[in-house]
Amino acid sequence: MVLPTWSITLIGSIAAVCTTAAFVPQVIRVWRLKRAEEISLITFLVLSIGSLVWLMYGLLISAWPVIVANGLTFALVLTILSLKVMWDRRSLPSAS
After folding, report:
1. Which residues lie below 8 Å from residue 37, measured CB to CB, with a gap of 6+?
2. Distance set, CA 1 to CA 4, 7, 13 (Å)
3. If we measure between CA atoms, which residue out of 75, 76, 72, 70 comes closest to residue 53?
4. In this structure, what is the dihedral angle of CA atoms 31, 17, 61, 52, given to the nearest 10 degrees?
5. SS3 93
6. Rounded CA gap, 65 and 46, in Å?
7. DSSP of 4-25, one letter per residue?
8. Which of 44, 47, 31, 49 is nearest to 86 (CA)?
9. 73 within 8 A of 21, measured Cβ to Cβ
10. Residues 51-91: pLDDT tens digits?
11. Quick one: pLDDT band at residue 23, thresholds 50, 70, 90?
């Protein structure tokens, strides 16, 4: 069965919205709690690299659902990583 182009784009767009939106609650939670010890640094580093590569792939094939979703996901993941690094450093005991 061959689907029309618009329906394939719709399927990709729905997937893009769902996977990107999944990170919004995590950003809100980390921001509200002002801590991120439970966030895995390695997981989010790998995820950021993956999102960046997907973004590059989307740009190369001019696939807007891939570009938009991974651009936003990359920004959200970098936000979480930045907050984690910032707040993890604040929670370290000072050497006084």
Report:
1. 88, 91
2. 10, 13, 20
3. 70
4. 20
5. coil
6. 21
7. -HHHHHHHHHHHHHHHHHTTHH
8. 31
9. no
10. 999 999 999 999 888 999 999 999 999 999 999 999 888 77
11. very high
What pLDDT is recorded for position 12?
85
Per-residue tokens: 53: 């590569």
Looking up tokens 């740009």, which residue turns up? Answer: 59
For residue 92, which phi and psi values (nearest 5 degrees)? -70, 140
Whether the predicted model's global pTM rises above the 0.70 cut: yes
What are the structural domains of the chain? 26-90 (1.20.1280.290)
Distance (Å, whole) CA 95 – CA 30: 26
pLDDT of residue 95: 55
